[in-house]
Every structure is written in structure tokens, then in C-alpha cells.
């Protein structure tokens, strides 16, 4: 249907050009005189060019795209060069080239930047370099280069999509976080925490560099006496402790910050030579049972580049089955909005938990509403550690949590 519409539209434009030719010729024949024939001969080159342009084969035009930025982070710049090749050196005048993509977020960024008018003339090869600033996170498919040519007065216009499908993956931003294994503890308050922990600090398995927030009792004083450098004892339970990271893809204006925090946490854990299990719940459940190497991390980053805030299930349906099979003592839950249902679902299904920390994303300076305060207090009464984090203190997430 679209092709038929294009053909009929082009035929209509050709009929218009032929009609203008007939009109100017008839005027010159019947009117006579220098002026009439001058008008005819002045219009003739433009009319002939329009007729020839109608039959110019765009099917023989090809395109190629070279992407200059192989890996892009959210908010970074993307640049590419599109090159058009053609077989016949037919003179082209007003030629508009533009990128075509099916990504709504990228189309917004491309507004006003994706089109460029060039005048190829007789050249068989024409290149066009463009840049897109502030790239949005996601998987963006570049469908091809849209080419549109026209004559002097716009009587004849032809267009074609030159297919060059390429995928641009924009990863979430990350911040450097100093990872510290989460320490299981009782929550202080009027209600006793339901989590229990037997912690043996009598047998040190090694020592490591001191980190802010380490207990004084864990400092290896003999090493300090020899080297004048603070070192901290490592215990067996700290080495063997596994962490389970959970985040929900609840629709929120702070979802991008949530993705950034999750990506930063996972990166810090892997670079600290530790391991973590990760569950991302939304319209689909994405479970990564172990993330320990850079290869594991890249798979998760690919997921985080494409993930959307599409949670449309209850908390029990979203996490119940996975938490029942979970065999870890520490749970780190990242969300943009803590809910009573999620707290109850975690408490009901995670039987082996000894420590659960909830990181709630907040914008800088955002006040805590009465409803949110009640939910946070409810979670604390059940033994959860609840902390609101904003972008400026992402880097101190583990340090601050350990001091809670």
C-alpha cells in the first residue's frame, strides 16, 4: 500500500511537471513574442531536470555507517559517520539525509540533529558526520539512513530508506563504591529482630587494609607495630558470606538512579573479588545466580542497559518463588519506593535471612513524606535496616550501612 502510494504520488508530480511544460509551450505558441518564448526557454531546463530526476534510480544508492563511539554510557556522547555511495554521477541538488530509529527516547535526542541537507552535485560518494549528546540508557536500533532528493522548486520529490541496521547499547552510569561485606546485626529498638546470627570472631583467617568504619577490636595491632600501617583482621564468616541483591522495577521517575546504583554495587562487588546473586523483578524476572567475574558482570550490564520500569505484579508474585529457594544470610534490596507488601513478602519467603538492608532511592534534598516514614518504621520494626540514598552519597553506601 505504501509503495503504491509512493508510485501514484510520483506519477502525480510527473504529470504536474509535464503540464507546466505544456502550459509554457502553449503560452509561447499562442502569445508569441520574445517575452513568451523567453519564459518557455527559461523554464525548460528546470522542467527537463525534474523529468530526469523522476526516473533517477534510488535503488542503486547504497549507504554505510561507521560508529565512532564503541561503548556509550548514559549521558555520554555518540557520534557516527554515514556515507552514501551511488553508481551514476547524476547531478543531485537538494538532498536531505537523516537517521531513522525505532527508539522513542533516541528520537527525542535526535530532534533537530538527525537531518542534514547536502548538495552532492556529480559526486558519487558523500559523507555525513553527526553527534548525539546526552544519550539515553537503553538498546537503540538504528534502522538506516533516510534519503530524500528534490528538484529546484520541489515539483518532484523522491525518498528511500537505505537499510543499515546497527544496535547501539547505552550502559548505565556507575560510580566507584568501596565494597564492604554486609555485617549481620540486630536492629536496635523496642521490637526484637527476627533474624539471628552466630558470629565467630575468635579465628582470624587473614588481614587486609584498614577501611573507615572497621571496628577497633578487629585491628591487627601486631602488624601495625611492625609497619605503622593499620590492618584489619579477616574472619571466616566474612570470607564465606554470600550476598543476594534484589531490586524491583517499579515505575518511578527515579528509576534511572536506581539502575545506576544497582550497576555500581555489582561492579564494586566483582572488583572486590567477591560474589553476589542478583534478582531483577518486573514484567519478567531476571535472575543471575552468581556474579563473580567480569564476564558475569558484562551479562548483567547488558540486562541493565535494556531494563525498563515495568513491574505490574504483586510483591508475592514477583519475588516469592526465588526468595524461597534463596540460601543466603544477607539480602540487599534496592528500590525507589519501599512498600509494606514487599517487606512482608521478603520476611515470609526468605527463611534463612540474618540481615536485610533496604536502600531507598531519593533525590537530593527530597523530604520524607508521612506515608514513607510509616513504611520505613514498619520495616525497621521487622528487623530491616532502611536507608535513603541519593546520588551524591552512592559512593558511601556500604560504608554508611556498616555504621548503622
TrEMBL record:
UniProt KW Membrane keyword: yes
Keywords, ordered alphabetically: Membrane, Transmembrane, Transmembrane helix
One of the Pfam families matching this protein, by short name: DUF58
The keyword GTP-binding is assigned to this record: no
InterPro entries attached to this UniProt entry: DUF58
Parts of the chain that traverse the membrane: 12-32, 38-58
Domain DUF58 residue range list: 207-350
Name this protein carries in UniProt: DUF58 domain-containing protein
